[in-house]
Amino acid sequence: MNAINKYHTFIIAVAVGLGLLLGQIAGLKQYAEYLIVPFLMVMLFGLFLNIPVKNLLSSFSNLKFISANLVINFIWTPIIAYLLGLLLLKEHLSLWIGFVMLMVTPCTDWYLIFTGIAKGNTSLSAAVLPVNLILQLILLPVYLLLFFGKTGSVDAVILWESILLVLLVPFLFAQLTKFWSSKRRKKTLMEQKILPFFETAQIIFLALAIVAMFTSQGEYLTNNLSVLYILLVPILIFFIVNFLVSRFGSYVLKFNYEDSASLSLTTLARNSPISLAIALTAFPNDPLISLALVIGPLLELPILALVSQVLLRIRNSSNNLS
């Protein structure tokens, strides 16, 4: 993990604060909103550029692990996220939608860092990354329409247009860039310059998008500070329940420690940038949905750090017993 990404939570918090301050300057608010989606698209281009989609088939090299990953991430997690929202966020539909969007998208980057910290099987975790990415791009709009289509809050046409604009365009551009570099024998340039730059720049462009978002819509946070504690309880319950589910699945499938740690972090870490990009374009008039997706990582990253330490304690206890 490069140095700047180690401060992911701090950078997001600073971006929120800076956006709130800039929102007090007359004239900035009305222009800032036009910068949000471009910044997110550049960030997603960098994300997709660093994901080895060509290795998609290698995701299935360990059938037990990929099966557990798919069942927990794409069947169990959407169900538990929706039910937690039904129980705790029913009176706050926008936060409910944002919460579900956050929880149904598995992480595609920093979970590998925490897997490494926990001494998990990072190679196995990296192998399932391409299939997790492809499935979440396909299934996120399906989950939204399935869970919230009848509420009138989700417009199917706008949702699919958002997918095409903010996800498919940078995804295809990233694949074309990699194809061009391979054909033009620019592989060294890609590996030594372009990929490292965008690995670092992802968090920068995400932070810029958050600054622009809170510059234009910061009043919604200051007027709705209660969303912080409203979201805290379902987010904490989600991580506790999914951690226990992943541990139980690892026990049933007789995974060794390394694979079980990988499963825990693969099924806990979430992908807020992709959800945020969709939320800002599909729900432009409902900033509380986007707000939920910004608050999520502020809570998630410290939790993942704690889970990594818990897993290390489990590993050390097992080693002492043996």
Mean pLDDT: 83
Count of DSSP-assigned helices: 13
The SS-based structural class is mainly alpha
Give the fraction of residues assigned to helices.
over 70%
Spans of at least 5 consecutive residues with low confidence: none
Order of H and E elements:
HHHHHHHHHHHHH
- Tell me, briefly, the overall form: globular
- Percent of residues in beta strands: under 5%
Rg from Cα: 19 Å
Number of separate strands: 0
Largest sheet: none
Q: State the end-to-end distance.
A: 32 Å
Overall description:
It is a single chain. This protein is mainly α and 322 residues long. The protein is 79% helix and 0% strand. The protein starts with 7 loop residues before the first helix and ends with a helix.
